Predict the 3D structure of the following.
Amino acid sequence: MNVEDQVAQGEVAEHDARLRAHLAGHDELCPMCEYNLRGLTGTVCPECGEALRLRVSLSEPKMAAFLCGLIGLSVGFGFSGIILVVAVVSLLLQDFGGGFPYWVLVALVSQFVIEGLAMWLWLVRRNWIRRRSRGQRWALAAAAWGYSIGLTVLFFTLVS
Ligand SMILES: [Zn+2]
């Protein structure tokens, strides 16, 4: 066995010892099956068989503003999707006699695509968002809601 393997094996043994020491004195639920792992002597959940690892996580995950903004964008995305489906169905079922305003359909598709892109961008940039200050994060979340509501209001203003 070479030195690197010995070091790696030493680190694994050290980790396993820390895991056992932690579980000896704490109630911890298996993240997979929620079996109480207190007093576990191995490194595998006896209930579901998943390998376990001791790790550090953030005390405040900073997800609230991110999720709030995501919900705002999802609402706009879902809403524009529903209106789009309703518009397409009524277009198919009713005879508008060529009088159907197709630009409404174009506006709806555009809104749906724009909301979808905003949601995708929000998800892709989640770590960047989570690194902003508390005030900035909530400002972004408010902007996401404002964006969704603004686009919807703009649509109805144009249609009515
Ligand atoms: Zn388990």
